[in-house]
Design a protein that fits this description.
Layout (H helix, E strand, L loop, with lengths): L3 H9 L8 H9 L4 H27 L25 H6 L8 H17 L7 H19 L16 H26 L4 H15 L3 H11 L12 H26 L3 H9 L4 H16 L1 H14 L11 H9 L8 H30 L4
Length: about 375
């Protein structure tokens, strides 16, 4: 039998203070060797030199909502460039007094995205909701009904245009990419060849060239008097470009499937469609969530390239704002605002992908 006094002594023994808590973390992560200790001290010295001036410039000596003239006599940041021009940055050339329409369209789109995040809503009705939302957004943006004046697509600009091109582009490109990946794995030579040629041709050229072709070259092949909207052409180019990259990622997931999965499906008497829909695709798509999200994030940021075909996304409307002589010289503040905006959108997508990957993890 153990000595009661020894047991009591052991219960009161605690690890050294330097091994637990904040001190323990610092010692094990930042000062666990002489080299890491030296690097830590050097980084702290650099941060000590950088952080105070940045804080003074961004917060202490800055102005937040004042006329442009008030920014001339300060040493800090002129954040006023954002609130003073927020309507144009967000809505561009959309007519004043009608900007509630793209604002409402943007709210509907974001609301549908949030609704779609719940896996319990992944039903056939969700596709109907997206189709209805597309019609409603188009009606709000274009007008011509319910007393809303017509606004041509040349005036669609700013954040609503960025969200429309990015989100609808990603939603449409994903199923097309999956179909292309299945086609490339097909045993039918004609289908496989067509998919391979399409994927390799699209991946072999930059998005700028596709946008240029859709805006300048494609109309030359249309019959006289036939025109296709410029925004729609840009949307199609983004969809086709993104789908080709998604197809290759999904193909990698399909090739990662073990042969036993197919044999198990055959033993159950499942046909090709049932095998892919019930067994192979759910596992393959789960595997390729991280690279797929990377492609979708790139597609979201690449919407800024539509400026080459005279479409004014949120980046271009910000540049136009900075071309105003009153606000010339405050590009740093404007681009920091845009960087934060893009970061929020991209981080939200990345965070949701990690959550989805965790939910679908089966412990394998």
């Amino acid at each position: 039998m153990s000595d009661p006094s020894t047991t009591t002594t052991r219960e009161y023994l605690k690890p050294p203070v330097s091994e637990v808590g904040v001190l323990g973390w610092l010692r094990s992560n930042l000062f666990n060797s002489w080299f890491n200790s030296l690097l830590t001290v050097m980084v702290m010295m650099v941060l000590w030199q950088l952080i105070p001036p940045v804080v003074n410039w961004a917060f202490i000596d800055s102005v937040w909502n004042s006329p442009a003239e008030a920014c001339r006599d300060i040493d800090g940041a002129c954040w006023s460039v954002i609130p003073q021009n927020i309507n144009f940055i967000f809505f561009g050339f959309f007519p004043e007094g009608q900007q509630w329409r793209p604002g409402l369209a943007m709210v509907l789109l974001i609301g549908l995205v949030v609704y779609s995040k719940n896996r319990n809503h992944w039903k056939k009705s969700l596709g109907v909701y997206w189709l209805i939302n597309l019609v409603v957004m188009g009606t709000l943006m274009y007008g011509g009904v319910f007393g809303m004046p017509v606004v041509e697509t040349d005036q669609w600009s700013g954040l609503p245009l960025t969200f429309m091109l990015a989100l609808f582009g990603m939603v449409a490109a994903y199923p097309i990419g999956v179909l292309l990946a299945l086609g490339r794995q097909s045993r039918l030579p004609a289908i496989k060849t067509l998919c391979v040629v399409y994927i390799e041709m699209i991946r072999g050229v930059p998005l700028i060239s596709l946008l240029f072709m859709s805006s300048v070259m494609f109309p030359l092949f249309l019959p006289e008097g036939v025109t296709i909207d410029k925004v729609l052409r840009a949307q199609v180019a983004i969809i086709l470009f993104t789908a080709a990259y998604i197809a290759e990622v999904v193909r990698g997931g399909l090739q990662a499937m073990e042969r036993g999965q197919f044999e198990a499906a055959d033993s159950l008497g499942l046909n090709y469609n049932q095998t892919m829909r019930l067994i192979i695709l759910p596992q393959a798509l789960k595997i390729v969530i991280p690279p797929t999200v990377g492609i979708l994030l790139s597609a979201f940021k690449d919407t800024s390239l539509v400026v080459i075909i005279a479409l004014y996304d949120v980046l271009k409307t910000t540049k136009v704002t900075l071309s105003n002589p009153k606000w010339t010289g405050y590009s740093t503040e404007a681009y920091i605002f845009l960087a934060i905006l893009y970061f929020i959108c991209c981080y939200s997508m990345s965070s949701y992908s990690r959550k989805l990957e965790k939910e679908l993890h089966t412990g394998r």
